[in-house]
Design a protein that fits this description.
By secondary structure, this protein is an all-alpha fold. The protein has a domain at about 55-100 and about 115-155: Orthogonal Bundle (Helix Hairpins), CATH 1.10.287.110. The protein is built from five helices and no strands. α3 (about 70-75) packs across α5 (about 120-155) and α4 runs antiparallel to α5 (about 120-155). It is elongated. The chain starts with a helix and ends with a helix. It is a peripheral membrane protein.
Length: about 160
């Protein structure tokens, strides 16, 4: 059997090792919290860091806090799709993520899937629709400006 002195030394050595490990882990945690990767600002949204020019598209990106590509991915549309397709996809995704109405009774079957709604996804869908509508309005206004300038140039 080991003497009490050896047991105390083992316990003290183990405590020192554990203490040093916890101290180093704490230092690393503080270092990680203070670290900010290069080019990342406070509330940066993906793609917002590059929207720094005064172009209308960058202004829309900053205003809606969403890039055009992100909005197209959320609503599953392409650049060439019309407003009707955007609204169709928007309605489907909005209803799919809506909470069930008060008249709908939950099923009690064991095999029935649990209906989960997501306010976060709903808000992303709404913001994506707003961003795409703003982009379409911008395109229409630029076409109208081009048409009015060409008709005013020709007497």
């Amino acid at each position: 059997m080991a003497s009490p002195r050896v047991l105390v030394q083992i316990i003290l050595t183990g405590s020192r090792i554990l203490g040093k490990a916890l101290y180093e882990a704490g230092r690393q945690t503080v270092k990680n919290v203070k670290h900010r990767p290069h080019g990342v600002a406070g509330n940066e949204v993906a793609g917002m860091a590059h929207a720094t020019s005064d172009s209308l598209t960058d202004q829309l990106t900053r205003q809606h806090r969403m890039t055009l590509e992100e909005a197209q991915l959320i609503l599953n549309v392409r650049r060439s799709d019309h407003l009707e397709q955007i609204h169709k996809n928007y309605e489907h995704l909005f209803k799919a993520n809506s909470p069930p109405g008060p008249s709908e009774k939950p099923t009690t079957s064991r095999n029935a899937s649990i209906f989960v709604h997501s306010h976060y996804v709903q808000s992303k869908v709404v913001r994506a629709r707003e961003r795409l509508e703003a982009e379409l309005a911008l395109a229409e206004s630029s076409i109208a400006n081009v048409n009015s300038s060409t008709t005013s140039n020709h007497p």
